[in-house]
Amino acid sequence: MSLGATVPNPNKKNTENWDIFRLQRKILLIFGLWPADRLVRRWYTKVLIAINLVTLAICIVGEFLHGLYAYQDGDLSEFIESICPTVSRISGFLRMVFYLINEEKIHRVLNNISKVLKDNHPRENNITKEMKVLGQQFTFYLFLMMFFAASLYGVTPFFIMGYNWFHEQRPLVKLLPFKLALPFGSQTSLYFVLTTIFLNYASAPTITSQSGSDALFSGVCLYIYGQFQGFRLEVEALAESLDKNLLKNSATETQRTNLELRRISKRHQEIIDLVSEVRNAFTPNVLLVYTATAIIMCIVCVAMLVVEGIYKLTYLPYAFAELTLLFLYSYSGTLIRDSSEAVQTVAYNFPWYRCDRNTRHLIQMMMIRAQYGSNVDVPFFETSMASFSAIVRTASSYITLMKSFL
Q1: DSSP H or E segment with residue 159
Q2: Which parts pass through the membrane (predicted)?
């Protein structure tokens, strides 16, 4: 190697390859965890991940103890308000733990996507661009809702303290974010300032652990949907290239068609394999979302009924954010399922009756694969809009039941 040779920077390479997941990557890097960087992760990034996980764990314990004390004192309203952020933090903590456990699998999925993007056919560029824009929009609105909810949790106590100070309440009662009361005396100014800073910082890993990981899953599913759409365009373009005036293809055209269909069939199998990898990599997170969302929505909606005053406003964006999370998972799964099954129709519309036996066999194989369909379903749950509707109905039933006990 010559002395003037430039050594490639692996960090730069990783940065340049993820334009399709640009916003998801930025959000996840706030937590410190981007799976594609796992082999080149700096020590200070590992420290950041550890700090964020410990922060979430401390908040979970503190909020749970506060809720337990409120429950023992018979204050049901305080108990419900305390466990609202706790459940969200538990969900975010488990998301990141599952990401760390499955980081290699997620990294493999992202690498496969990066390789395919380099070999995109020009006719697929528009589809990829559309899916990229849609994925970034989903990510932005999801992050915005969760950020708004966390901000309201953080600033509402200051609005109330300002109101009390304006009405000359003396001594002024200091209120912590998330209506939390830690074991030490929070009325001490130093303790109050440090606790407020800590709790507001804890909102960052809570938001990023959910919005980043869930938006990444949605972005990957949108990309796969775009691949199925590109597959459809390839089959249709090949069908259009055949001479429609012939009842049977010539030997030259048959050979060309057979070679193209072999390449297209191989790509179809690669997409199916990619769906399988996505399902294996994201199964714990999908299962967590479908299991926990109904409970979280139930608790949030009940809290909206029992709290009073300005605190009601803090739960509205929270409920919308959880509903959006569930919708993104369900909608993403539906897109993959429908686009995979649509391949069967595209293959059947191909003029296979004018081809030889080998070519017809390739078409039949595509139809058989499409008949079974590709999906990102997990145990006990089907990632579809039907599941979204069922979980929302279940949450509504829980809310009605809990309301009868209040």
Answers
A1: helix 125-166
A2: 47-67, 79-101, 138-160, 180-202, 287-307, 313-331
Contact yes or no for 109/285 (Cβ under 8 A): no
Beta partners for residue 381, in sequence order: 378
The pLDDT-based confidence of 406 (bands split at 50, 70, 90) is low
The pLDDT tens digits of the residues spanning 236-271 come to 888 887 766 665 667 777 788 888 888 888 888 888
Stated pTM of the model: 0.84
Q: Is the Cα dihedral 215, 216, 219, 221 positive or negative? A: negative
268: number of CA atoms within 13 Å, CB side?
30
Q: In this model, does residue 180 exceed pLDDT 70?
A: no
At 41-59, the pLDDT tens digits run 899 999 999 999 999 998 8
Record the tokens describing residue 75, joined without a space. 């204050």
What is the distance between the alpha carbons of residues 377 and 387, in angstroms, rounded to a whole number? 11
Amino acid 168 reads E
Q: Are 148 and 314 in contact (CB under 8 A)?
A: no
> What's the longest Cα–Cα distance across the chain?
95
What does the block give as tokens for 298? Answer: 């139930």
CA distance 132 to 204: 25
Read off the DSSP letter of residue 174.
Answer: P
Q: Are the beta carbons of 228 and 343 closer than 8 angstroms?
A: yes
DSSP of 261-287, one letter per residue?
A: HHHHHHHHHHHHHHHHHHHHHHHHHHH
Q: What is the CA radius of gyration of the chain?
A: 26
Residue 373 has pLDDT above 50, yes or no: yes
CB atoms within 10 A of CB 233: 15
- The DSSP bridge partners found for residue 306 are none
Residue holding tokens 């009756």?
A: 353
Angle at 320 between CA 319 and CA 325, to 5 degrees: 100
Q: 246 and 354 in contact (C-beta within 8 Å)?
A: yes
Distances (CA, A) of 107 to 47, 104, 317, 362, 373: 20, 5, 32, 32, 24
**Hey, where are the domains in the chain?**
21-405
Q: Which of 287, 392, 295 is closest to 86 using CA atoms?
A: 295
Contacts with 131 (C-beta within 8 Å, 6 or more apart), sequence order: 20, 222, 223, 225, 226
Tell me the C-alpha distance between 326 and 386, whole Å. 12
